[in-house]
Structures are given as C-alpha cells and as structure tokens.
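Need a sequence for this fold. Nothing fancy.
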C-alpha cells in the first residue's frame, strides 16, 4: 500500500487489513479518534510506535511528553505542521511495511 491508497482509505469506516499497529494508530488519528490511536501507539514497543506516540502528544499539545517520545523514537521533535508530519510518518512506515 502506498501513501495515496492509505490516505484514500480514510473515507472507509475501518482501516485496511494488514496494517501495523503504528499505521493503524495513524489511521485512527486521522479519523479524529485520538484515544484509540493513542492506545495502539502505546501498544507498539518499538521506535515506530514511539514516533507515532510522539506525534499524538504533539497534536494534543503536550510538548514535554511528545519530546520524550521523540527521543525514544531516536528523532528530533518535528516543527512541521501536524498534517505534514502525519504524511511523513505514514509514508515512511508504509515504505517499511512494503
């Protein structure tokens, strides 16, 4: 799946099958279900989950917590607009998923 198909899936009522938890979290975040997205990101123990988790806390406005999760992800805190960061994360994670 590429970013275009992933973005198009946002008009569906459920995320596409076969997504990683991190991608599913991004999908739910784009749907406005922050709590569900947060639960999924928290359940993903690796750097990808930490990156999504960081983005979610940045979206929430909790920059201290976001910065902690960016460090856990091995990344600097983003200064991109949230929508651009969401696309960057989704694009990279989709490329890794293959």
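Here you go.
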């Amino acid at each position: 799946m590429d970013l275009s198909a992933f973005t198009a899936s946002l008009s569906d009522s459920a995320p596409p099958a076969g997504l990683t938890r991190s991608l599913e979290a991004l999908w739910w975040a784009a749907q406005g279900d922050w709590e569900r997205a947060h639960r999924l990101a928290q359940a993903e123990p690796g750097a990808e989950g930490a990156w999504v988790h960081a983005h979610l806390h940045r979206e929430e406005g909790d920059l201290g917590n976001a910065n902690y999760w960016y460090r856990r992800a091995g990344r600097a805190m983003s200064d991109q607009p949230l929508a651009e960061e969401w696309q960057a994360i989704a694009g990279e994670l989709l490329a890794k998923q293959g």
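For context: The longest helix spans residues 82-97.
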